[in-house]
Design brief:
The protein is α+β, with helices and mostly antiparallel strands. The protein has one domain: Nucleoside Triphosphate Pyrophosphohydrolase, CATH 3.90.79.10. Helix content is 15%, strand content 42%. The protein has two helices and ten strands.
Length: 163
């Protein structure tokens, strides 16, 4: 079982997206993703979120909000992935050059046009256009999207300020 975070950092009407184009053996090679990665031992989801955003972009979120949790059974063909999905805002737009790929600020309306995982097109609509918290399962087999299930919960106090 792998625990991870995925964060969509926003500034004005743009979203910071990572084009996974630098590592030859990257399971996500060629895809666009939000920022994130695996938990380190002992990390909370929020600590992982802040560390991953800092490491991959050089940015410090001003605010962040837990939007949902996604389970990806055997996503990589080996392990189940449990992913905490966040949005965050930042005061700056200047980013570093990460080793995983190329960062770009994409107008929110153009994000669905990117080369995304098929399931991302579904849950990004929830992330950007709904207020409810979601818990979902997205099933892939050999990199091909199969189906999903989702439960929505009323919006609650799931926002935090980075102090």
């Amino acid at each position: 079982m792998k625990m991870a975070v995925l964060c969509y950092v926003e500034h004005d009407d743009s979203v910071l997206m990572l084009h996974r184009n630098k590592r030859k053996n990257d399971y996500h090679l060629g895809k666009w993703n939000g920022l994130g990665g695996k938990f380190l031992p002992g990390e909370s989801p929020e600590q992982c979120l802040l560390r991953e955003v800092r490491e991959e972009s050089g940015l410090e979120p001003v605010t962040y909000s837990l939007r949902g949790i996604i389970t990806f059974p055997l996503f990589d063909g080996v392990e189940d992935w449990y992913t905490f999905v966040y949005t965050a805002s930042t005061a700056k737009k200047e980013v570093i050059d990460p080793e995983e790929g190329t960062l770009a600020w994409i107008p929110r309306s153009e994000v669905p046009d990117l080369n995304l995982w098929e399931g991302d097109r579904i849950f990004l609509d929830w992330v950007f256009n709904r207020t409810e918290f979601f818990s979902a399962v997205f099933r892939y087999q050999a990199g091909e999207f199969k189906d999903y299930e989702v439960v929505f919960y009323p919006a609650s106090a799931s926002s935090a300020v980075n102090a």
